[in-house]
Amino acid sequence: MHTLSIKELSDGLRAKKFSSRELTEHFLKRIDAHDGQINSYITVTAERALKQADAADARLARDGAHLLTGIPLAQKDIFCTLGVRTSCASKMLDSFIAPYDATIVQKLHLDAGMVMLGKCNMDEFAMGSSNETSHYGAVKNPWDLERVPGGSSGGSVAAVAAGLAPVATATDTGGSIRQPASLTGLTGIKPTYGRVSRFGMIAFASSLDQAGVVARTAEDAAYVLQAMSGFDPLDSTSIERPVDDLVAGLGDSIKGLKIGLPKEYFADGLADGVRDKVMAAVKTLEGLGAVISEVSLPNSPLSVPTYYVVAPAEASSNLARFDGVRYGHRADGVKTLEQLYKRSRGEGFGAEVQRRIMVGTYVLSHGYYDAYYLQAQKVRKLIYEDFKRAFEGVDLLLGPTATDVAFRLGANADDPVAMYLNDIYTIAANLAGIPAMSVNCGFVDGLPVGLQLMGNFFSEAKLLNVAHQFQQATDFHRQTPAAFA
Amino acid sequence: MAYDTTTWEVVIGLEVHCQLLTHSKIFSGAATAYGAAPNTQADGVTLGLPGVLPVLNKTALEYAVKFGLAIDAKIAERCVFARKHYFYPDLPKGYQISQYELPIVYEGHLDVELDGADGKQVKRIGITRAHMEEDAGKSLHEGYVGQSGIDLNRAGTPLIEIVSEPDIRSAAEAVAYLKKLHQLVVYLGVCDGNMQEGSFRCDANVSVRKRGETKFGTRTETKNVNSFRYVEKAIEFEIERQIDVIESGGRIVQETRLFDPGTGETRSMRTKEDANDYRYFPDPDLLPVVVTAADIERVRATMPELPEAKKARFIEQYQLPAYDAWVLTSEQALADYYEQVVRESKAEAKLCANWVITDLLGGLNKAGKSIAESPIDAIQLAGMIARIADKTISGKIAKDVFEAMMAGEGSADDIIQAKGLVQITDESAIVAVIDEIMAKNPAQLEQFRSGKDKLFGFFVGQVMKATQGKANPDAVNRLLKEKLSG
Predict the structure, then answer these.
(1) Is position A152 annotated as part of the catalytic site?
(2) 8 Å CB contact between A38 and A134
(3) Which whole-number Å values give the CA distances from B251 to B4, B218, B246, B258, in the listed order?
(4) Which residues pair with B9 in a beta bridge?
(5) Which of A146, B45, B408, B444 is the most buried (most CB within 10 A)?
């Protein structure tokens, strides 16, 4: 059952080949048996999942079930879930039981009737590219347990790659959906900024954060993203615009589709093996009728430094609410208010989170704001204009998702800048707010390689169809790590 | 003024925090009512829970625009919310959502009558800006041993912070400006103006300089002076303190000071050195607010008649002296009361004004009551004035009727009836009384007739006494003159 697609699961439930309870029990058993090896879940909500499954079975027996009713899903532990610990993988929120549901939790579970298996591990407050900053320990890559799954949505991708969930939610601030999807051979999509509500998603960098999906196929991702998307009056940055049908266009021909290859994405720093696989994928798409050309995003090299001003600045502000006063970790034995703040935050936040809070505080400080934050905002506009220009000539942009395949656990532990450069190809889409996704396009030494597609605003349907066409022509997405067959 | 105004010039700028009278908070649906049990009006957004997001209250925006129009200010086509960071337990997010570089209202002004009444000496005080922001909660330090309580009911209440130019030159001008501003926001219906409950709070920036000096002196900011009287006292104290420091060779330190109502003094709270770096930046959770010309016109259509216009209309329509019009338009509720009295009594407008200003306001003032709490409503007062107009009672008797009405003894007609206060207008009855008085007082009559005119008053008094004041005074005067002259 854990290798079936969302469509097959939906059909199977309707044809009564299996019930939602059986399906849910199957995944819970697999989590029990295998998650010890990869640590992809922080909290498994077995009891609640079975209750939801029973409710789904009842709903399926009546009329009015959603296409996703009864299908299990894993939630990244960044989304607030009523009555369930929502930790953001931080000691700070280890004791935090969310008193409300995020809008996407409402949409997926209450509205669509999906079953929540549990809350997935991640980098602490989504800050990291290897899932090594989690308070609950590192997540292992199911393709090689010595390697990282990428981050920050490392738990989400590991769970799906290992067959411990059919699909999972994830979030992407600078590549946190696409880079882990790339490193674990999955399909991950970050939609247009404002397409999916951020209400109830614990903020890292508000102007960059966007929720999305990791799945085995573009088709699976399309079904779930469809159910998550839409305007939310509780999120002022959510966009009031009807959601396109993401599924209907899967199967459209891509003949004549103009795909641009940004030359900056194939420059030095890209591993040869990855380059070969990506170029092979380009050939495949060309074979399907796509028209390939080279384009330039001249400000690309500025993405990483720009991001590492904007994101920490917003993070330093967003994380100010974790002060030990109302909820979350509070240090013992404090005598003064200042001690309460310093010790609660010093104990509650891990090293990477503290580093980013300090960087962010610095760039917003009096006398530095103009030189850093304001300057970064200007560059951000240039990066957006690069894309705007590029999309005047092509429909989509294509390149690698990450510079290389999954690296070994601990490999970048002492070098934050090397770690930050992992996101060199993914960050620009967040800075510009455009949708982007990663699709498995082959393997190097048994490790998956990701192909990145970037589209103009609200081109999710187009992106998903190109990925779907590619997956119809290839079988990379069908391969699963042997240890978790 | 205790300082030498020929040597020293005072420069004052005021920052007023004005709570907007919306039902819900500026960025969430939680209620804003004052006085609820602690933390019963704190929803997820107010508490700053992880993952929550702010959504701007449209009414708060509308009120800010309304205020901007009332002070003839510019309304920003595009304004931006910014985060102002500092850690304090009653500030749940670790930042306050405020406006920094692009406020909603800028470059306005208020014309203030410095001598109060007749509007002859008017000074224009510039208003630099008015920006929207959220209020903080309250820290409660009493009643908890070794701990502090936090009440977040007030957190997230919409405020506008109104910043004046440093145009104010004395404590008296500061108070005149504040009173005018207070009157305006209450008139507009954007603030309840309750200073005790903190709906209208003032911080005063004060500096002094030698006359002729073009540069401003170093200023201090005195926080949260919560009554007009305290503002005056705090500023006066601060002026004298600063002059003393400078005259004894010292320098003023830029600092925040706190006014102590108990001692009437200000004391240092924190200096510039330990001031926070607020690290303002545009709030990425809120899009820039765009206000179109059509939005502004929509708000303009809801503007009530403002004090200036109302005063002018009262002078014109009711032929009132400027002073009367000024008093009667000082509060919307009072102006409404007065207009109702005129309408219902159908009496002369000036007569109505006299009764409202002298008797009603005097009485309320003595009882410490507001116009809303008046024991006599406008219809009741109109009923009494109508009885004066139709000569049922004299003006003098009316004073007694009014007192009885204030004491809650019923309507004017009931009281006139019960106490038999109907005026005696029957001239034969009055003549009979005059005859009797003349007969009883032959000596006085003799003296009057031999030229002691002053005794006329004696006879009037005797007649009024004999009729318990009910005789029509005009008739008494006329008839007495006839009879006394023989």
Answers:
(1) yes
(2) no
(3) 19, 8, 6, 19
(4) B209
(5) B45
- Contact at CB, B55 and A234, closer than 8 angstroms: yes
Q: Judging by DSSP bridges, how do beta strands A436-444 and A447-455 pair with one another? A: antiparallel
Q: Round the CA-based radius of gyration of chain B to a whole number and report it.
A: 30
Q: What is the ipTM of this complex?
A: 0.96
Specify if A208 maps to a domain. yes
A384 within some domain: no
Q: Please check whether residue A160 lies inside any domain of the structure.
A: yes
* Yes or no, beta carbons of A320 and B50 under 8 Å apart: no
| Catalytic residue selected from A10, A40, A76, A140 | A76
Find where tokens 């804003």 sit.
Answer: B32
* Structural domain range at position A242: 6-250+456-479
Q: Would you call A365 and B49 a contact, using CB atoms and an 8 Å cutoff? A: no
What is the three-class DSSP state of B132? strand
Q: What residues form DSSP beta bridges with A167?
A: A215
Q: Which residue out of A130, A134, A153, A176 is catalytically annotated?
A: A176
Q: Which two tokens stand for residue A348?
A: 């509650």
Task: Find the DSSP H helices in A151-230.
Answer: 154-161, 178-184, 218-228
Nearest CA in chain A to B48: A321
CATH number at residue A153: 3.90.1300.10
Residue A125 Rama label (left phi>0; alpha psi -120 to 50; beta): left
Q: Which residue on chain A is closest to B85 by alpha carbon?
A: A317
Is A10 tagged catalytic? no
Q: Give the chain B residue whose CA is nearest to the CA of A373.
A: B281
Q: Is residue A71, in this structure, part of any structural domain at all?
A: yes
CA distance B81 to B63: 16
Q: What is the CA radius of gyration of chain A?
A: 21
Q: Do A235 and B53 touch (CB under 8 A)?
A: yes
Phi, psi dihedrals of residue A37, rounded to the nearest 5°: -80, -30
Are A278 and A449 in contact by the 8 Å Cβ rule? The answer is yes
Q: How many domains does chain A have?
A: 1
The pTM score is 0.90
Amino acid identity, position A360: G
CA distance B464 to B466: 5
Query: Are A49 and A116 contacting, i.e. CB atoms less than 8 angstroms apart?
Result: yes
Measured CA to CA, the distance from residue B337 to residue A125 in angstroms comes to 60
Whether the CB of A200 is below 8 Å from some CB of chain B: the reply is: yes
B85 and chain A in contact, CB less than 8 A: yes
Specify whether the CB–CB gap between A236 and B55 falls below 8 A.
Answer: yes
Are A6 and A219 in contact by the 8 Å Cβ rule? The answer is yes
Interface residue A236 vs chain B (CB under 8 A)? yes
**B250 half-sphere exposure, CB direction, 13 A CA radius:** 9
A316 part of the active site: no
**Residue A295 in contact with residue A258, Cβ under 8 Å?**
no
Residues A44, A48, A53: CA angle, nearest 5 degrees: 110
Per-residue pLDDT of chain B (486 residues; tens, 9 = 90+): 578 888 999 999 999 999 999 999 999 999 999 989 999 999 999 999 999 999 999 999 999 999 999 999 999 999 999 999 999 999 999 999 999 999 999 999 999 988 755 556 889 999 999 999 999 999 988 877 778 899 999 999 999 999 999 999 999 999 999 999 999 999 999 999 999 999 999 999 999 999 999 999 999 999 988 899 999 999 999 999 999 999 999 999 999 999 998 998 999 988 766 678 999 999 999 999 999 999 999 999 999 999 989 999 999 999 999 999 999 999 999 999 999 999 999 999 999 999 999 999 999 999 999 999 999 999 999 999 998 988 888 888 899 899 999 998 888 888 888 887 777 778 888 888 888 888 898 888 888 888 888 888 888 888 888 888 888 888 888 888 888 876
Residue-by-residue DSSP string for A381-430: HHHHHHHHHHHHH-SEEEEESSSSSPPBTTTTTT-HHHHHGGGTTTHHHH
